[in-house]
Amino acid sequence: MKICFSFTLLVTLLCAAQTIHAQSTEASRTEATKTEATRIGGYGEISYTEPDGPIHGTLDIPRFVIFLSHQFSEQWSVKSEVEIEHVKVEPGAPSGEVAVEQVFVDYHHSNAFGMRGGLLLIPCGIINQTHEPTTFMSVARPHIDQEVIPSTWREIGLGIYGDLGELVKYQANITEGMNAAGFASTGIYEGRQEGVRSDPNSPGLSAKLDFLPVLGLRIGASIYYQTNTASSLIDSTNQAITISSPLTVVAFDARYDLGNAHFRAEYALDNIGNASDLSLVRGTTIPQSVSGEYIEGSYNLMPHLWESSDVELLPFVRYEMVSRKWSDLAVLKDQTWLIAGVAVKPIDGLIVKLDYEWSKEPIVFTGGGRTGSAKGLLGFGLGYAF
Amino acid sequence: MLILSLIAASYAVSAAQGVPEKAISAMHRVFGESLAIKIYSLVIDSTEAEAVYDVTGEKVSGRVIIREATDEQGTIAGYGIVDDVRGKEQPITYITMIKPDGAIADVEVLVYRESYGGEVQYEQFRKQFRGKSRVNDLHVGRGIQGIAGATISSKAIANGAKKVLTLFQLWRREGKL
Lengths: 386, 177
Known about the structure:
The complex is a heterodimer.
Chain A: H1 2-20, E1 38-51, E2 58-71, E3 76-85, E4 97-108, E5 114-121, H2 144-147, E6 154-164, E7 168-175, E8 204-211, E9 217-226, E10 247-258, E11 261-272, H3 275-282, E12 289-299, H4 302-305, E13 312-326, E14 331-345, E15 350-367, E16 370-385
Antiparallel strand pairs in A: 1-2, 1-16, 2-3, 3-4, 4-5, 5-6, 6-7, 7-8, 8-9, 9-10, 10-11, 11-12, 12-13, 13-14, 14-15, 15-16
Chain B: H1 2-15, H2 19-31, E1 36-44, H3 46-56, E2 62-70, E3 76-86, E4 91-98, E5 104-111, H4 123-126, E6 139-140, E7 143-144, H5 151-173
Parallel strand pairs in B: 6-7
Antiparallel strand pairs in B: 1-2, 2-3, 3-4, 4-5
């Protein structure tokens, strides 16, 4: 019995060991494919924004990101991202930020199944998981991906991912949740714990499905649910406040590439449960819901001007809207924007952007130490990713 | 326990099936099950390397293994060339199968290692390569539609097919193939 057991155990172990080394024995002699186990990458954005109004413009490095990964084997890896926002952090000065944006262990078993554990990006919309500056047209990220989906939304937890056949991809995570102590009248953005000595008391469940029904089309549906974002609230005497505020975030996104034309659309909704009680407890009016949408089209003109060139010349236009509903006043407040511009990709990995943002409502802008409103914003940006 | 190890063993055999075995399976699927596969190699000389660099921007050198599918009469049904291209972080191993008339019969990914961009392994993307015989038609945005959200791997495979087809056409012209 013992011999049989150890023999079968040995066979199993030998077979498991075999699966680790499925290396190609015919690597082409191309220098590009000599990959090290440890890889450094990065992306960054440099911007200049000039408001149409009395407020001064701003030059900034919104993001400088270093990506570091290591492959332990074909299946096991660790991936990480460190980010510096707005150049530097200085006590007392307008805030810059240094943060670990992602760090996780990844087990990629097969096309159908993989697992991740660590500080993960919440699968919600397009930008939260794909936000290198070379992947979007405008200088700034769309408003919906800042004000409705709190990009870059990342929390510590565990996740699974993979392909269901050839047309569907899935992701599902359980992570630390949001903390309503950070919610504001604008929305949930500051409710993110971001893995900073976080409270695991009320976890968040998130899932996303991506559908690829026809070549060029990708449709996403995301959901996030947390039973109580208020579970960590305490009053001035350090007593726990017992109110319940569930949070639901849903998002739908679509990307369609047809030859030289590219389209994107996104819709997202944050539903903050029991917002009126939460507002009373927090002493600030927290919205019942925040929602937004955008639709964008861009077109690569270069093949019409210079057929064999690899440079991309992409004029684009985007219409966006964000709405908030505050339960006290039952007021629905919308803001809409129209952003038009052109992005040029001289080579894969680099992008130069020029755009102008209009809004019917005044645009709040902070520059030169003053905050005021502007009729429009002119933006110029440089971006890279490698 | 025995059943578990048998399952593990059968899984391990298929997963650890080397690239050469996968390449031969791909060629049998495309050119015919009963065909013999003849294997030899060709060396990339400096003129050929320069030509590939001009077209793809990639530096190539060394020996390339050619697999030739032939029938009983010795007629060549097609060629298969295995290559690696770089994805976002890891190499992607794929085979380009070319018919004797110089048109691509199929492109198949043999090993996809990364967690992202794996859509290039699937039919939706691959079927675009079939029948193409001009290197200029193998460009993402011009002949090949990339997968939304998997641009890097789409471009990697398209550039790889360009590289292989360029080499094939050069060798054809020089009478080596």
